Amino acid sequence: QSIIASRATVDDVALTDTTVADDDSTRQTNFSHQSYAGAGNRGSSRSVRSSEGAAAMDLTVKAHAVSVMVCNLHGFHRASAHVSKEAAARAIGEVVDVVVAEIGDHGGVLASFNGDTFLASFNAVRPCPSHAKRVCATALAIAERAPAVGLRLRARVGVSTGKCVLG
Q: Quick one: how far is CA 22 from the chain centroid?
């Protein structure tokens, strides 16, 4: 389920998808792994061994309800070309502070930050009840706050909720 919200409040966003539930919908599946450590060893096992022959560990993957958010600063590269490198670094630092604070305040985890693009997950790394509503609240807060800091750029934010394989 993808949710697109523009100039709305979290209460305006209807979350009616019954196929995606929170933590109680987690399903565990054992993963069968092919081992190719030696030329003659092509057996299937339920464990993975390191090349040093250390003890085996169970590899379990889960189908889990997760929400993700991606955020990009519209026009950052063009705007940063007209200021010093130091000013651009300060500006992106101010935006990073806002984005990281909003993600953390709503129970998410910053998964990746590259230049002017941020990726956050909710209910993947750590449990996050009502992750779909929280990711929407985060997106709306960032879209509202980002133009007030740094180079005063608009944040383009997208969110998606669905099943994800974790392991």
A: 16
- Is the pLDDT at 151 greater than 70? The verdict is yes
In three-state secondary structure terms, 135 is helix
> Phi, psi at residue 74, to the nearest 5°?
-65, 120
CATH class of 2-23+63-166: alpha beta
Q: Taking the model in full, what pTM does it have?
A: 0.67
- What are the boundaries of each domain within the chain? 2-23+63-166, 25-60
Instruction: Write the CB contacts of 26 (distance below 8 Å, at least 6 apart in sequence).
Output: 62, 63, 64, 65
Please report, rounded to a whole number, the percentage of residues in the chain having pLDDT higher than 70.
65
Measured at the CA of 5, the angle between CA 150 and CA 141, to 5 degrees, comes to 35
Distance in angstroms (rounded) separating the CA atoms of residues 162 and 58: 26
Q: What angle do CA 84, 86, 87 make, to 5 degrees?
A: 65
